Amino acid sequence: MYPGSFDPVTYGHLDLIYRGSKLFDKLYIAIAINSKKQGFFTIEERKEMLEEVTKAIDNVEVVVCDKLTAQFAHELKATAILRGLRAVTDFEYEMQMASTNNILYPSVETVFVMTRTEYSFLSSSVVKEIARYGGDISPFVPPVVRKRLYDKFNIKY
Ligand code: ADP
Question: What pLDDT shows up at residue 94?
Fold first, then answer.
């Protein structure tokens, strides 16, 4: 299971999804509902975008996670939680999460995949910031996501 906010999905996430879909028989992409963060796109919008950009990958299914990530993975009978590591800055938080989840649900492993260098700087927040000012986001997100972002910000393109 690959959990995240996906607000919105970027080429960095997609790279991990492609790679995860080859590592595992089945890959659930779990959109995590964060009670502390409002989010930019609604959960439904994020789900629609994820489904659109992954429709060509047979063994991927997009689901919404409204509970603890590890508990949800356990209930889905997922063998592993897939996470991306972009830089050392990701490491501390990820290590904390993985260790905690391992105590709560020892049967669920956390598997880390290193980001490809060209996406190592890429985050949904950076993309939103560029889009807000009408910058070119085509190197970072698929066309369907680009359209939704510009529409939200009322940017003509
Ligand atoms: P979260 O709020 O859980 O960090 P994100 O949607 O930002 O949600 O990220 C979900 C997962 O995708 C995380 O494991 C993150 O490291 C990974 N990820 C995010 N951006 C990239 C990227 N550019 N390249 C590879 N992995 C990424």
Answer: 95
Residue 128 among the catalytic residues: no
Share of the chain above pLDDT 70, in %: 100
User: Which atom of ligand 1 is found nearest the CA of 90?
Assistant: 16
Does the pTM surpass 0.85? The reply is yes
DSSP structure string for the chain: -EEE--TT--HHHHHHHHHHHHHSS-EEEEEE--TT---SS-HHHHHHHHHHHTTT-TTEEEEEE-S-HHHHHHHTT-SEEEEEE-SHHHHHHHHHHHHHHHHH-TTSEEEEEEPPGGGTT--HHHHHHHHHTT---TTTS-HHHHHHHHHHTT---
Q: Indicate the pLDDT class of residue 54, thresholds 50, 70 and 90.
A: very high
d(C-alpha 110, C-alpha 84), whole Å: 10
Residue 33 CA, ligand 1 centroid: distance in Å: 15
Q: Are 84 and 113 in contact (CB under 8 A)?
A: yes
